[in-house]
Amino acid sequence: MAKRKTLDQAQEEEETVSNESSTAESSSDDDDTDILDVEFEWFDPQPQHDFQGLKVLLRQLFDVDANAFNLSELADLILAQPLLGSTVKVDGNESDPYAFLTVLNLHEHRSKSAVQDIVNYIVAQSKTNDGLSLLEHLLGASSQTRVGLILTERLINIPPQVIPPMYKMLLEEISWAIDEKEPYEFSHYLILSKTYTEISSSADQENRTSKKKKKKQKTTSAATGNSSIFYFHPEDEILQQHASITGGFHYIKEGEDQSDSKRAFQEAGIKPLGHLMLIEASRFEAAVKAVEDYVQAT
Considering the entire predicted model, what is its pTM? Predict the structure, then answer.
């Protein structure tokens, strides 16, 4: 059953996306750009239909480090809890998901290799950023902290309007699960996401005409310190404001991937980075409300 049919807010978000598309189309009669009016639907994860689509989105989420994880096992774990989390589709229940959001209980599933790989990866990456150092303690083998790992990703160009309904439904589903004495009463939510920074594009590098110019640019870059961070998912900037711990990290396999998509990023002057945000459970509902307000205002 489409979750859209059971959540009025999701219907409102869908109408917002549709209306924005219609407005853009009517106001650009002289523009050659085609506007596609798409109807989004929200579904529970479907084990019989979503396995391959989830793997594609997980691979996109973990970027060049995706091969460090058993994505098949991770997708199976997500699909094993079909009443928790959501997918977004445009061609009905049996089509591939264009977006997903779920939460995994890191303590409850600590014996599963897919979760062990993620925890070990996050702990290793937290050691590269002082701002994330507390995660090693929270995720340690002896820790009793109840951390819910939120995994969410969507295909490029899927609008942020699809996100607030998924977060709101997740809150509702967690509440129902707690009422049923299921292990989803978390103390913290850890969101794994992606950001990017701007670097010299391939075209910029090719257009440099002198060694003197190269030296000047290198000196300027060193003087300015860290580059500005940008968000692939605009809602992450809002969620970060409610986080007690936040920070980025470089991918372990950075520079090794030569796929067309990675070359496209390099040519455009974009360098993807991993990003983590830890939000206390007592602040999570307010964070979701802030995301909803932000998306409605954009």
Answer: 0.83
